[in-house]
Amino acid sequence: MTFDFKVADLSLAEAGRHQIRLAEHEMPGLMSLRAEFGPSQPLKGARIAGSLHMTVQTAVLIETLTALGAEIRWASCNIFSTQDEAAAAVVVGNGTPENPQGVPVFAWKGETLDEYWWTAEQILTWPGADSNPELGPNMILDDGGDATLLLHKGVEFEAAGAVPEASDDDPEEYALILGVLRASLAKDPQKWTRIAAGIRGVSEETTTGVHRLYQLAEQGKLLFPAINVNDSVTKSKFDNKYGIRHSLPDGINRATDVLMGGKVAVVCGYGDVGKGAAEALRGQGARVIVTEIDPICALQAAMDGYQVARLDTVLEQGDIFITTTGNKDVIMAEDMVRMKNKAIVGNIGHFDNEIDMAGLAKVEGVTKVEIKPQVHEWVFDAGTGTERSIIVLSEGRLLNLGNATGHPSFVMSNSFANQTIAQIELWTKRDQPEGEREYENQVYVLPKILDEKVARLHLDALGVELTELSKEQAEYLDLDVAGPYKPEHYRY
Ligand code: NAI
């Protein structure tokens, strides 16, 4: 079998396979879905374009989806997050580095942004699909929404017959997307419209991507049904919190090896990710200060025992600054200039616009020293006698995936079990007759009973003994003995 792919080095496949084997042991959710659905092949015929950090855990997801019958092309959703050995192992599959037989992956650690958008185009561009749309992708699995965005923008500009120029207000990266679309429009003016017509649904992993989907749906522009995987309870209340609690200190340690105990850590944002971040830093003995714009989350942080302050008031106190907001312009260049000498600045929200990296590069007299890949010292006032510097992790991109290996397998088993179930839902219910459709071009969360199922799949591995409702108790609470156990509005 020959197929196109682009990864760093196929000779890493064996190392990757060992890690995948160990990860499978820690991913009971995915492995039991393989056992349950492998025989019935519910994803047969699904051709999934996947855009999600190409890690060891994602390798187990990819191989679960193929075990359920899907065909796949995969890219990472971040330029620094690929684990090259995992990417190699997925490509090699049951073959050898000389004769790979796995899945086409387009991902390597340290892509340029140009390369990143090339990989995004590759997962949506299936061999032979330009002449036969039946061969193109029919499902998307997205993280952060870049694949979905590229496709929607492509359709929009093909309808307009032209791709506009980026304006000064657009993020720098937007010009690259426009470049990809301009080139494709010149070659094949219906490419994205044709691909979009074949897509039966998208499942989206993260808060930021979900936000984009709801915006598209509100504007009536969403081209296919979407499942918001992030807001499964077993995703956002686990991955975003407990995953971060593990992978944030992992990233800081691997990047800097600075003792966190006794330091002042400032966490911007106290949503799910912020809660995990603050808890992890406190667990290491740091004194944590939280910033928030939402009075409810600010009050929660205060009641959890954190000082809540404005960034401006604590800039000179912090030793470590972590952004977790999913918002833009949270730490600006003028803030970084005021920080203590050797303060560490990192972001764990989805995009790199939380920290003003463009502004930092423009500070007068600033120089950038590479300590090692994804760890940079930005030196202010070099040679003036008042020289100071700050350490920026992963150039302002997700530091847990740039400086470390992201969340551990067990928590990702929860997130990816939701992804797998979402793909099965959208794919198996794609042809319901008009009027009976469960999924229109809107954004849905999975039914609570499936959310509970995902949790259930992880209990045995932890030795959890779940108490069973008696029939009488179930009647008293007006519940079914088998669940769901909470109303939709319950917040956990
Ligand atoms: P969330 O919406 O629960 O929390 C974000 C919080 O930031 C909110 O409470 C909001 O009020 C606050 N906020 C917004 N602007 C702010 C500002 N200027 N200053 C201070 N606080 C501000 O979202 P969640 O789930 O915590 O996700 C946050 C980001 O992390 C998203 O971009 C998400 O995609 C990403 N994410 C990253 C992961 C990783 O592995 N690195 C894992 C999961 C999510």
Automatic annotation (TrEMBL):
It is an enzyme of class 3 (hydrolase). Coiled coil: none annotated. GO terms for molecular function: adenosylhomocysteinase activity. Residues 240-406 form the S-adenosyl-L-homocysteine hydrolase NAD binding domain. Its cofactor is NAD(+). NAD(+) binds at residues 206-208, 240, 269-276, 292, 327, 348-350, 400, 407. It is found in: Cytoplasm. Its EC number is 3.13.2.1. Keywords: Cytoplasm, Hydrolase, NAD, One-carbon metabolism. Pfam families: AdoHcyase (PF05221), AdoHcyase_NAD (PF00670). Pathway: Amino-acid biosynthesis; L-homocysteine biosynthesis; L-homocysteine from S-adenosyl-L-homocysteine: step 1/1. Substrate binds at T55, D143, E205, K235, D239. InterPro entries: Adenosylhomocyst_ase-like_sf (IPR042172), Adenosylhomocysteinase-like (IPR000043), Ado_hCys_hydrolase_NAD-bd (IPR015878), NAD(P)-bd_dom_sf (IPR036291), S-Ado-L-homoCys_hydrolase_CS (IPR020082). May play a key role in the regulation of the intracellular concentration of adenosylhomocysteine. This is Adenosylhomocysteinase. It comes from Arthrobacter cupressi. The gene is ahcY.
